[in-house]
Write a structure and sequence with these properties.
The complex is a heterodimer of chains A (164) and B (111). Chain A has 164 residues and is an alpha+beta fold. Chain A has four helices and seven strands; from the N terminus they run βααββββββαα. Chain A has a seven-stranded antiparallel β-sheet with strand order 1-7-6-5-4-3-2, covered by helices on one side. With 111 residues, chain B is mostly helical. In chain B, helix 1 packs antiparallel against helix 4 and helix 1 crosses helix 5. Classes of the chains: A alpha+beta (164), B mainly alpha (111).
Chain lengths: 164, 111
C-alpha cells in the first residue's frame, strides 16, 4: 500500500524515538505487539487500561482500541497496519488519542533487533500532521527551558545509529 | 511537508549527526571547527547540518564575525518537551509492563 507520507527513516521526518532493550527473543517481543491478548497486558501508561475492539493483523488491516484513563476518560484509537515483517519490523498508522490529542495521526515504526537472546526495540513516532499538535504546544507553554534541555537527553540516543 | 516550527525542529532532530551536534552543544558554546571535530565530515557538510538546526531555531550563531560560535536555543525544546511529557511516560511505562510480561512468559515453557 503506497502512501504520500515521507519514506520511513527519511532525514526529514518529524519524529520522536523511544528505545528499550528487552530480555527476550525478537519472536516473543513481536508477538507481544501483535497478539491482542498479550498487547492489552502492557499497552498504555500506569493506571491506563486498553480494550481492543478489533485487531486485524495483516497489511491494510484495522486495529481499533480504546485507552481507558484512570479518571474514566476514554481515548479511542484506530490504526491501520502498513508493514508486517515478523519478527523484525512492524509499521502502523495510528489515529487517535494517545492520552490527549484525539485527532493526532502518526505512523509508528517499530523495529526489533535480536542480539544474544535480547531484543532492542526502537519505536519511531513519525508525525504526519504536526499542525494538529497545537494543543500540545499550548500545554507545554509553561515549561521552563532548562528542564526542557534536560529532557532533551531522551531524544539524543547516542551515536550507534549514525550510519542509518 | 508542514513548515511550522515544531515540525522543523522535529525534522532537524531526525538526523543522527544533528542529534550528536546538539548533544555536544548541551555543555556549552562551540565553534564550527570544534563541532566538526568528532565527525569524519567536511566543513561544508557540517555547515549544512548547522543551517538546518539554525532554521529550526534549535541553535543560534553569534554575530561575532571571527568565531561565530553556536549555542542551543531553548524555545523549540519547550514545545518538544510538551510532546515528550505525553509520550515519554506513555512508552516508558508501557515498556516497563512489556518487560514484566516477557519475563513472565520466559519463565514458562515456550509454545
Amino acid at each position: 500500500m503506497k502512501s504520500d507520507a515521507p519514506p520511513i527513516g527519511s532525514d526529514a521526518t518529524p519524529e520522536l524515538v523511544f528505545e528499550r532493550l528487552f530480555n527476550a527473543p525478537a519472536k516473543s517481543v513481536f508477538r507481544a505487539w501483535t497478539d491482542p491478548t498479550r498487547l492489552v497486558q502492557w499497552w498504555g501508561p500506569h493506571g491506563f487500561r486498553t480494550t481492543i475492539e478489533r485487531m486485524d493483523v495483516r497489511v491494510g488491516g484495522t486495529w481499533s482500541y480504546i485507552l481507558h484513563g484512570p479518571d474514566g476518560v476514554q481515548y479511542p484509537n484506530t490504526a491501520v497496519f502498513e508493514i508486517l515483517e515478523p519478527p523484525h519490523r512492524l509499521v502502523f498508522r495510528n489515529t487517535g488519542g494517545h492520552i490527549q490529542d484525539k485527532h493526532l495521526t502518526c505512523r509508528m515504526v517499530a523495529t526489533f533487533v535480536e542480539k544474544q537472546q535480547q531484543t532492542q526495540v526502537k519505536l519511531r513516532m513519525q508525525f504526519q500532521s504536526i499542525d494538529r499538535l497545537a494543543s500540545a504546544k499550548q500545554r507545554g507553554a509553561v515549561e521552563g527551558g532548562e528542564q526542557s534541555l534536560e529532557r532533551l537527553a531522551a531524544l539524543l540516543p547516542g551515536s550507534e545509529c549514525r550510519n542509518l | 511537508m508542514s513548515t511550522d516550527h515544531l515540525s522543523l525542529a522535529l525534522s532537524a532532530l531526525a538526523h543522527p549527526v544533528r542529534r550528536d551536534i546538539l548533544a555536544n552543544l548541551m555543555s556549552g558554546e562551540r565553534t564550527v571547527t570544534e563541532l566538526a571535530d568528532p565527525f569524519d565530515m567536511t566543513g561544508p557538510a557540517i555547515t549544512k547540518h548547522l543551517k538546518v538546526l539554525e532554521r529550526a531555531g534549535l541553535i543560534e550563531r553569534s554575530r561575532d564575525a571571527q568565531r561565530r560560535p553556536c549555542k542551543l536555543r531553548a524555545d523549540p525544546f519547550r514545545e518538544i518537551q510538551a510532546l515528550l511529557r505525553v509520550y515519554q511516560p506513555f512508552w516508558d511505562e508501557s515498556f516497563d509492563k512489556l518487560d514484566i510480561l516477557l519475563a513472565k512468559e520466559g519463565n514458562r515453557v515456550e509454545e
